[in-house]
Write a structure and sequence with these properties.
alpha/beta; Pectate Lyase C-like; 2 domains; six-stranded mixed β-sheet; 3 helices; CAP/MinC_C; MinC
């Protein structure tokens, strides 16, 4: 019998609680287990006086939007206050968020289409049959299993990034991606799509700095 991997471990310490997040699993799966524990199995910790929480990421390095997703999830569940979110890895170069990015929350279901002029960040999933179309970049803090089209006005510098990138189709400007099973990447962990020499490429998100060295 296969034993399920414990993606989130919650421990009591002298100064409050420590949340230890498994660093070998997909971020989207860790978030789902964290939400399940806060809503179901560990509801008892949400009552009583304020409790300080330390979040330990292990060897996982998160960008600011992912840290904010963890912080918002924990603090929205009652009396928990996130004191720190720490990784065992050296601190990465700070990323300055573009204030022009439109943020939306929720799930894009089959048959739904979201269209936006500019850059868009979705805090949620895109299900098969769901579509996102933008003139600029698309960032999805969740699973992309539907269709995403960035740079719909012909901007080949646009990118598409997702925590779990397994779409039915990706398009940037007029360039269409190969099917995901032809990408040659076994683990779908925070990847992005971009255009290089007229061809769509897929890479890990930590390589974005080489595509956008000035955080454009």
């Amino acid at each position: 019998m296969t034993v399920a991997k414990n993606l989130v471990t919650i421990k009591g310490v002298k100064d409050g609680l420590v949340f230890i997040l498994n660093d070998n699993s997909l971020f989207v799966d860790v978030i789902k287990e964290l939400q399940h524990k806060l809503e179901k199995t560990h509801r008892k910790i949400l009552f009583g006086p304020l409790v300080h929480v330390q979040v330990r990421l292990g060897k996982r390095q998160l960008v600011d939007v992912e840290k904010e997703q963890i912080r918002e999830l924990i603090k929205s569940r009652g009396n928990l206050i996130v004191q720190s979110i720490e990784s065992d890895l050296p601190e990465a170069t700070p990323i300055i968020l573009d204030q022009s990015i439109k943020m939306i929350y929720g799930m894009i279901r089959s048959g739904q289409t979201i269209q936006h002029e500019g850059k868009l960040m979705l805090m949620g999933d895109v299900n098969p049959g769901g579509i996102i179309e933008c003139t600029g970049d698309i960032y999805i803090m969740g699973s992309l299993r539907g269709m995403a089209h960035a740079g719909i006005n012909g901007d080949q510098t646009a990118i598409i990034a997702a925590s779990h990138l397994r779409p039915t189709q990706l398009r940037i400007a007029e360039v269409i991606s190969r099917p995901p099973d032809e990408w040659g990447i076994e683990e779908a962990f925070m990847e992005f799509a971009y255009i290089r020499n007229g061809v769509m490429e897929i890479d890990k998100i930590n390589q974005l700095q080489h595509v956008r060295p000035d955080n454009q």
